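WARN  no MSA supplied for this record, continuing single-sequence
INFO  ligand: magnesium ion
INFO  echoing inputs
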Amino acid sequence: MSDTALIDVEGLSIAFSGEDNSAAIPAAEDVSFSIAPGKTLGLVGESGCGKSVTALSLMRLLPPNGRITGGRIRFDGRETLSLPEAGAAGMEGLRGRHMAMIFQDPGSALNPVATVGDQIAEVFEIHYHLARDVARQSAVKMLDRVGIPDPELRARSYPHQLSGGMKQRAMIAMALACRPSLLIADEPTTALDVTVQSQILDLVVELQNEMDMAVLFISHNLAVVAQVADEVAVMYAGRIVERAPARDLFAMPRHPYTQALIATLPRLGHPQQRFPAIPGTVPDARVRGKGCGFAERCPLADATCHESEPALTADAEDRAVACFKPLETSALS
Ligand SMILES: Nc1ncnc2c1ncn2[C@@H]1O[C@H](COP(=O)(O)OP(=O)(O)OP(=O)(O)O)[C@@H](O)[C@H]1O
Ligand code: SF4
Ligand SMILES: [Mg+2]
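INFO  complex generated
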């Protein structure tokens, strides 16, 4: 592991139990990454590839039928998977205070029957033991900080009285009230229109720089990830298939899946042009056989690819790829 990382995830595997006690279905396998303070890791991949379950595992918030079946998570020197749930020294003390999460749907984080101001004030009361009126003032300051106009008035609003973009800002204010050292942003802009989306991205980056936060930024949209990430991990069917500094990944993708993802991005100057989706579908985790998970869709697949699974292997100090035939970087230069 890296000595400088705030969070270090090693070999994380997650599975869900079936409804009828059938065998557990893997949702993520052997996921490893680390994030240093102030840095952003973009986690990208198609729907169902395991991004959200990975994020929820970091918070230890998997649904009851989900289970971490292997690996370890070290956060700020603590092994979180063996921490007790309760108490300031347990996960309860870490969540909200040291690690926080924002979601695609602010409705899942905001309480519909409490005012926005009261909800943020409660974070200050719980974690900083502030008196009610001081906590309320801090909440108004935080709403102002995330660019909500007329924050005094907005603090008295209920979530349904705010627009989508404003709700998203309020959720960011709540998540960042305690200045967490890790922010997990799971598709935070997907539901927003393009202009609001880029305002929210700018806001996250601005607050990150101000607070020196590490950010795990999740999106199925590689173009969005490109705007914010220092490093990118590409997931496919539950596994990380390529990891690289953002600039290198876009300049020279090595995994055929990453190449295909980049090929589907709209090009500068041709925003309306439609690019072909990657043919085929992600294999069903319940019936997936041996071999590379991308083999059914990969133009380079051969017999070996269908027989054995390529391991994620470091190919340079800061890059790794899981493929038997990665594109040679020399071929691209
Ligand atoms: N509560 C659950 N019960 C059973 N399986 C689940 C549950 N939640 C997720 N899964 C499975 O875990 C796998 C990974 O799901 P996950 O939500 O992490 O995908 P994702 O990459 O976040 O996709 P999206 O881009 O659609 O948000 C999927 O195959 C999904 O069906
Ligand atoms: S291991 Fe084989 S099937 Fe998998 S991505 Fe590489 S070339 Fe394609
Ligand atoms: Mg998700």
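The mean pLDDT is 90.
INFO  checksum written, moving to next record
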